[in-house]
Amino acid sequence: MTLTLQKKQTRVLGTPIDPVGWDEALDRIWQLARRRQSSYVGICNAHSVVTAQQDPAFRAALEGSNMNTADGAPVAWMLRKLGHAHQQRINGPDLMLRYCEQASQREESIFLYGASQTTLDLLQERLLRDWPSLKIAGAYSPPFRPLSAEEDAAIVQRINDSGAGTVWVSLGCPKQELWMAKQLGHINAVMIGVGAAFDYHAGTLKRAPLWMQKRGLEWLYRLVTEPRRLWRRYLVTNTAFIAGATQQLLGK
Q1: Among 13, 104, 5, which Cα is nearest to 54's?
Q2: What residues have CB less than 8 Å from 147, skipping those under 6 apart?
Q3: Phi/psi class of residue 36: alpha, beta or left (left: φ > 0; alpha: ψ in -120 to 50)?
Q4: For residues 156, 161, 163 and 168, what is the CA-based torsion angle, rounded to 10 degrees?
Q5: Distance between CA 79 and CA 69 in Å, rounded?
Q6: Which sequence spans correspond to the domains of the chain?
Q7: Other CB atoms within 10 Å distance of the CB of residue 13
Q8: Are 48 and 74 in contact, with CB atoms under 8 Å apart?
Q9: How much of the chain is in helix, strand and coil states, percent to nearest 5?
Q10: In this structure, are strands 15-17 and 190-193 parallel, antiparallel, or unpaired?
Q11: Phi/psi at 54 (nearest 5 deg)?
């Protein structure tokens, strides 16, 4: 049975974002997972909405998702300005952990897709240490190249045969969203793109301190720790987001 969830999306710089809280976000994923309905969820920060303005394929992927949550503090702030006064950040790493805790209580299976094999091994150790009853039905580290048609069919079959209701995808933006959109109708589960969550939880990448997370400064921590790789992205993205947000708010 196909479950149609009522969308109440608000556009942020043209990108549809669902103004949901933690309980609703988790419940919507569970309602899809329990039916093993082919669907996917986007986790959107400022980089996502700016990229969607520039990349038609990525924009189409976000338009086709079942839900897009407000990951970055700027996106949550925009939703508050657009009428959703109590909007929280629904970010990928925390969403994954909260869901795994609930899944462990339901004896629900999950599947992990992405990152390196080393990261996957460490991640599984951490998750099972925290929730011994969590059922990890499978984990796969894809190669750093496009999969052949045969390889793609094999991993789809492996995921479907695993019985997992959710597939947690850690490939980075926009690769993970494009992959999920491609697998819509093929993978019988809800796919959730969680960016660097696997590395954070495995301990292979250090996350910003909690006080920075709560103040919406996680991007600054990443910039300071990886300046060569991220300075251009944040300079361009943040400038474009501020300009687009100003234009949208003035045009309300």
Answers
A1: 13
A2: 155
A3: left
A4: -30
A5: 11
A6: 15-202
A7: 21
A8: no
A9: 55, 15, 35
A10: unpaired
A11: -105, -20
Q: Which amino acid is present at 79?
A: L
pTM here?
0.91
Angle 65-70-75 from CA coordinates, rounded to 5°: 120
Separation CA 252–CA 173 (nearest Å) = 29
Provide the 3-class DSSP secondary structure of residue 55.
Answer: coil
Q: What is the pLDDT along the chain (252 residues), one digit of tens a residue?
A: 555 555 689 999 999 999 999 999 999 999 999 999 999 999 999 999 999 999 999 999 999 999 999 998 899 999 999 999 999 999 999 999 999 999 999 989 999 999 999 999 999 999 999 999 999 999 999 998 889 999 999 999 999 999 999 999 999 999 999 999 999 999 999 999 999 999 999 999 887 777 777 777 776 667 777 777 766 777 788 889 999 999 999 986
Please name the residue that has the structure tokens 């970010």: 91
Identity of residue 190 = V
Q: CA–CA separation, 17 vs 9, rounded Å?
A: 5
Phi, psi of 14 (to 5 degrees): 95, -15
Alpha-carbon gap, residue 132 to 128, rounded angstroms? 5
| Structure confidence at residue 221 (pLDDT) | 66
User: Which residue shows structure tokens 């589960």?
Assistant: 189
